[in-house]
Specification:
This protein has 182 residues and is mainly β. Helices cover 4% and strands 47% of the residues. The chain is built from 1 helix and 16 strands. A hairpin with a 5-residue loop joins β11 and β12. The longest helix is centred in the C-terminal third of the chain and has 8 residues. It starts with 8 loop residues before the first strand and ends with a strand.
């Protein structure tokens, strides 16, 4: 088992009940840490249910009261881990993508940031991504396609925050930004 150092831990996740504590690492996959031990999930064959499509984890997300943990990988796309069954599901439509950030939108959709490509709505039923254009194509290109990560967060229903290079908030539905783009 690899030695855990602060340099390799990239993202952290916690669910008190069954899952315990989870950590995504840059080179060693996903750790599932419970009171009684640690289980390491590394890369596996594409569409195999025993591991990740890529061992470098960039982002983790779980909706409240849900069993599934959404995992963004560095080149392996989006993966889903079910904490009850301890099984993975790889999302083929996202394979090859670097999923830098994940947040919830509603029961059927996630918002994902794909490194160097932009922000996308991900439909959980169809497993397809639809681009989200921020303000207009010019601003969207400056934000999302310059080789920098755009981090996402939805703190309140109807408000999306993203960070590049500072935090901006979009009120979904009317598209108003705070602070405004100039």
């Amino acid at each position: 088992m690899p030695i855990l150092s602060p340099a390799i831990l990239f993202c952290l996740f916690m669910q008190i009940r069954k899952m315990g504590f989870g950590a995504g690492s840059v080179r060693s996959g996903m750790f599932n840490i419970k009171e009684v031990g640690i289980k390491l999930y590394a890369d596996a064959l594409l569409n195999a249910d025993y591991g990740l499509s890529e061992k470098s984890v960039l982002s983790l997300y779980q909706e409240q009261n849900e069993k599934d943990i959404w995992i963004g990988t560095d080149g392996g796309g989006l993966n889903v881990f079910n904490a009850d069954t301890n099984k993975f599901r790889h999302i083929p439509s996202t394979y090859g993508e670097k999923v830098a950030s994940i947040t919830g939108v509603d029961k059927n959709h996630l918002l994902i940031s794909l490194f160097g490509k932009g922000i996308f709505f991900y439909n959980k039923q169809t497993e397809h991504c639809t681009p989200l254009v921020i303000v207009n194509d010019d601003i969207n290109n400056r934000l999302c396609q310059q080789g920098k990560t755009v981090n996402l967060m939805q703190k309140y229903t109807g408000k999306l925050s993203y960070c590049f290079p500072r935090v901006h908030t979009v009120t979904t539905g009317n598209g108003k930004h705070s602070p405004p783009f100039i």
